[in-house]
Amino acid sequence: MSSLGENRVEKVFIDVRFSDQEIIKKLSAKRILIEKVSTVKLDELSNQGLHQGIVASVLDFRYYSLEEILGASKGKKFPLLIILDSLKDPHNLGAVLRTCDAFGVDGVIIKKHGQVPLNATVAKVSTGAIDYVKVCEATNLSIVIQKLKDNGFWIVASDSQAQMSYEQIDAQRPLALILGSEGEGVSGLLVKRSDYIIKIPMLGHVNSLNVSVAAGILIASIIAKR
Length: 226
Known about the structure:
By secondary structure, the chain is α/β, with parallel strands linked by helices. It has 2 domains: 2-58, CATH 3.30.1330.30; 66-224, SPOUT methyltransferase, trefoil knot domain (Alpha/beta knot). Helices cover 32% and strands 22% of the residues. It has 8 helices and 10 strands. The protein has a 7-stranded parallel beta sheet with strand order 6-5-4-9-7-10-8, with helices on both faces. Strands 2-1-3 form a 3-stranded mixed beta sheet. α1 (21-29) links the parallel β1 and β2 (33-37). The mean pLDDT is 92.
C-alpha cells in the first residue's frame, strides 16, 4: 500500500470478482472506502491500462511553499535542503526523493518549468517517499537561493569542473545542495551564486554519475559529517 501513497488514497475500486482478501482487509483496516465495480468500469478508470482488478483514486500530489519548508526546518541545528535544477527523468526524481527520505532531508526544491513534476512514475520509483518528503515547486531558483541565504543557508553546487572535492564541505551549518540536470548539470547562474562548488572525484573511465547516484553519495557524506 505504501507504493500507492496511502496517505492520499480517497477510494479504491475493485472488480466484483476480486478475491484477494488480504488486500481487502488492509484497505478496511485503514478505513479506505471500497467500491465493487465491473471490469468494464475498471478499464475505463484506468484508461484501458493494466489494473489487475483494482484501481485507486488518489489526491493530487501536494507541493509545499518555501516558507513551510523553512518553518519546519527551523528546529534543526543544521537543516539540509536539496535543489534540483531541470531534472527531466521521473525515475531520477523518484530515486532522489527516496534517498532524501532515507537520510531525513528537510525539503526538496524543484523548478516549476522545464523540469519533471511530481507524478505517478515519480511516486512509484520513490516507493512511498513522495508522501513524506516536502517538495517545493519554484518559478525562479535564483530567488529561492537568495531567500535561503537570508535564512542562514550556505549554498553548495555540484559541478564536474569544480576544484573542491565533496569531502571538503563544512557540513556543520545549514546547507542547500544543488544538483543539475542529466545532460547539462547545474546552470552557470546558479553555480555563480553558490558558496561552495564541489565535485565527486572520478577514478574510472567515465566522467559522470547518474544524478540520483550522485545525490546519494553527497547527501550521505553530509549526514555522516554531522
